[in-house]
Prior knowledge:
The complex is a heterodimer of chains A (316) and B (557).
Chain A: H1 2-29, H2 46-56, H3 62-74, H4 88-123, H5 128-142, H6 145-159, H7 176-210, H8 213-220, H9 225-254, H10 257-262, H11 268-277, H12 281-309
Helix pairs in contact in A: 1-12, 4-5, 4-7, 4-9, 4-12, 5-7, 6-7, 7-9, 8-9, 9-12
Chain B: H1 2-27, E1 51-56, H2 71-80, E2 85-87, E3 93-95, E4 115-119, H3 134-145, E5 160-167, E6 170-175, H4 182-186, H5 194-198, E7 218-224, E8 228-233, E9 246-251, H6 255-263, E10 269-275, H7 280-284, E11 289-304, H8 314-322, H9 326-333, E12 339-340, H10 363-372, E13 376-377, E14 383-385, E15 388-389, E16 391-395, H11 401-417, E17 420-423, H12 428-431, H13 434-437, E18 443-449, H14 459-462, H15 483-493, H16 498-515, E19 518-531, E20 534-535, E21 554-555
Parallel strand pairs in B: 1-9, 1-10, 16-17, 16-18
Antiparallel strand pairs in B: 2-3, 4-6, 5-6, 7-8, 8-9, 10-19, 11-18, 11-19, 12-19, 13-14, 14-15, 20-21
Helix pairs in contact in B: 8-10, 15-16
Amino acid sequence: MAGYLLNRLWQSVVLLVIVSIIGFAVLNLTPGGPLSQFALTPGMTQEAMDRIAEQMGLNRPLPVQYLDWGWRLLQGDWGTSYRDGQPVLDVIGRHITATLLLMGTSTAFSIAIGTWIGIHGATRPYSIFDYTVTIGAMVALSIPTFWFGLVGIYIFTLELGWLPAGNMYTIGDGSVLDYLHHLIMPSLVLSLVNVAVWSRYMRTATLDVINQEFVKTARAKGLTERRVLMKHVVGNAMVPMITLAGMQLPSILGGALVTETVFTWPGMGRLFLDSLGYSDYPVVMGLLMVSAILVLLGSLIADLLVALVDPRIRVS
Amino acid sequence: MRMTDQKAKFAATRRQALKMLGITTAAGVFMPNLLGRPAFGATPPETPTGRIVVGFSQEPTVFNPLMPRIEVDDGVHFSLFDTLFRIAPDGSFTPGLATEVPSIENGGISEDGLEWRVKLRDDVKWHDGEAFTAEDVKYTLELIVNPNFRSWRTTGHTLVRDITVVSPTEITWKMESAFAPYLSFLADTFIVPEHILGAAEDPNTAPFNNAPVGTGPFKWGSRTAGDHVELIANTEYFGEGPYVERLIYKYIPDLTVLYTQFKSGDIDIIGSQYITPDNYEEAKTLPGKVITTVSTATVESIYLNMERPQFKDLAVRQAIYAAIDKQTIIDALYYGLPTPTETYMPQESAYFNPELPKQSYDVEKAKQLLDEAGWVAGAGGIREKDGVRLSFTNSTTSGNHLREQAQQFIQQSLAEVGIEMKISNLPPAVMWGEFWTQSQFDTAMVGVIFMIGADPDVTYRFHSEAIPAQGGRGANTGQYQNPEVDALLEEGGKTFDQEKRKAIYREVQAKIRADLPFLPLFQNMTVRGRDAGIEGVEPNINTRIDTWNTGSYYWAS
Lengths: 316, 557
C-alpha cells in the first residue's frame, strides 16, 4: 500500500512539472500580455510601458522566468497577482469559499437527486417516469446554463420578485438567511444540468448491475426486492459513481464559470476568467497548479475509495 | 427596495448622526455648496445618509493611485483621494488641495513656464487624522519618478526639478523645459501620504496599496475580492460632501447582468461600461430611473498603418474614407447615438475645430480619386498600382459585435470601389499588445481617448518621434509623420496662452484631417442610468469615468 502510494506520488510530481511547463509556455508565448490593457490609456507612452515591463520582470527570457517562478514555488511562494498585488494563495483563498458554497450545495443536491432518479428510472425502464426523466435530462443538457440563469432572473426576480438577481449576499446584510436566499437560484440552475448528468450515469450503471447473475441469485435466495436493490444493486452500481465523484473534486473547487458570471458570484470560475483576461500570469499559473493537484488528488482518493468498497479491486 | 434600505440605514445611524452634528457645527467644516446646484428643490442631507451602490463591469483592483490603473480604478481613486486641482466638466481647472490654480497671470507659473509655485490648503487631514502638507506633494512627485517604483504615467513629471517645500502650505519646483499640458497631468495625479507610504519598506507592495489612506470625501472601508469595494463617508472632508454614508463599487462582469441588476434595483447607478445601446429604448421606459445620454471623449476610428505601401498615397486614404457610410453605421448599428466627427478632438472641447471639411459617403468620388491616382483594376477586380494591391486587413477586439458588424459593412462598401478589406480580429490582450503598439497591423478599428484630461496635446500620438515601431517613445502606432504637425505640436506644448493654443491645435486638426492618417468615424455616446432619487451626479467628459464627484452625490429625501 505504501509503495503504491509512493509510486502514485512520484508520478504526480512528474505530471505537475509537465503541466506547469506547458501552462507557462502557452500563457507567455501568446502575444500580448498584462500591459496591453494600458496601451490605449490617454497619455500612455511606449517608454512608460517598457519601464513597467522591466520592473515586473516581463522582459526576461522565458526559461529564466519559469525557473524563477518554479524556484519560488518550491519555497512556498506562489507569487503575487499582477492585478491587485496580493499573494496568489490569498487571492485563491478569497474566492474558494464562495465557490465551495455554491458548488458544494449544488453537487450534494444533484448527486442525491440524480442517483435517486437514476435508480428509479433503471428499475422501471421504459416507463413513463423513465421517458420523462430521459427527455428532461436531454433538454437540461442541451440548453446553455447562461440561458437558464437569465430566464430564472427574469421570472423569479424581475417578474415575481421572489429571489435576488444574483450576488452572494446583500451588501450590508450577509446573514445566514440572506446567503441561503441568494444561493437558491444559482445552485438550482447549476443542479439542473448536474442532476441530468448524474441521473444518466446512475441509470446506466444500475441497468448494468441489475442484469448480472448475482442479482438473480439474490432474488432466487428469496430476498425482498427492496433488499436486492439496496444491498446488491445500488451498492455495486455506486462503484463507478465514486470514481466519477472523485473526478468532480476539481470542478467543485474550480467553480462554474458561466453560472458565476450570470449570478455575479465571486468564485473561482470568475477569478480564472478575470485573471486570464488580465493576463495575470501568477494567478492563472496558481489556479492551473491547484486544479492539477486537485485532479490528481481526486483520482487518487477515488481509487482508494473504490478499493475500500469493492473487495475485488485490491491494489497490489 | 431602496426605500427600506434607506430607512434601515437611517435608523442605524441616528445616534452617529447626532454625534456628528455636534462635531460638524463646532468645527464649521460642513458647508454644502448650494450655489452651483440645479434647482430641483432637493437639498443634500445635513449628515451623510444612506448608501449608493455603483455597478462597474470591470473590477477595481488597484488602490495606490500612482500605480498602473484602468478606468474603474480611477473611479474609486476619485472618491478616496484628491488632486492639487480638479478638471471641471467645462474643461476649466478648479482648486483641490491647492488654494488656487497656478497660471502665468497669478504668478503661479513664470513667464517662461519653467518656475512653478503652488499654494496649498491648511485645513486638509488624511483619513488617519494626520495633517496634509507640502511634504506629501513633494513625496508624491518624487515617488512617481523613482526608478524603483512601478508608477503609471510619468509624462511631465520627469521634467520636474528642484522641488522645494517653502512652507507646509507652499511648494515650488522648476521644469527642465516648458510643458503646458503638465496642469492636466497634475489634475490627474492623486496625492499620497508621505507619512504612510514613505515609511513603507517598498511602496510597490506596501499594505497601503490595499488599505489606502487619502484625503478624499470617502474613507476606505473594505474590499471583497471579485465582488465589491465599500467606502465610508469622511465627515472631516474639506470640500463639498459627502452626503451618503456608504459608497459601494460593485463589480458585475457581464453587461447584460449589469443592466439586469440596475433594473432590479441591486445597483443604484450603472457605471462604466454603462447601458448598451440596444437597451436604450427599453431603459427609457423603466419607472423610477433616470436615463441620460452622455457624450464621451472616445473617438471611434479606423487607424491606418502609414508605413504600409497601400496607404502611402493620400488618394487611397481619401478614397477609403469617402467609401465609408458613417451615418448608416451610426444609425443601424449604434441606434443613432454617436455623433459623426472629423477629428480626434471631442466637440465639447474649447480646442475643437468646427471648420473641418465634412466627409460624405460617395462611392463615385472614391472611384474617381483612385482612377486619377492611377490605381486600376487588376486580378479579381482589386485595384493595383506599381505592383501594390489595394488589399489590407482590418483588425479589432474579437467579440465586439458592433465593431464586427461595422467591419463587414465597410468591407462591402470598399469592395464596390475595388478595395479588398480582410477581417482578422484578435482577443483584447493580443490586439492591444505588440500587435498594436509595435504597428504590426494594416488597419485597426479602435476607440481612443486622445485627450489627457482636457488638454489638447497629442504629441505622443502624432509626433514623428513618438513611433514605437521606429524606436520612438510615445504611442504613435499609426506611424504618422508630418514635419509641420511636429513643429505645431512642439510649439503648443510650451505655449500657456489659451488663445494661442487654440489656434495651434485647430491647425493641427486641420492638417491631420487633410492627411487622414486615421479615418475618424464618430465620437462615442454612452447611455447612463441612475435611480431617480439620486442627485448630484454630473457627467465629466474630461475624466475617464463618471464617478469623479461622488462627494456631491446624495439621496433626495
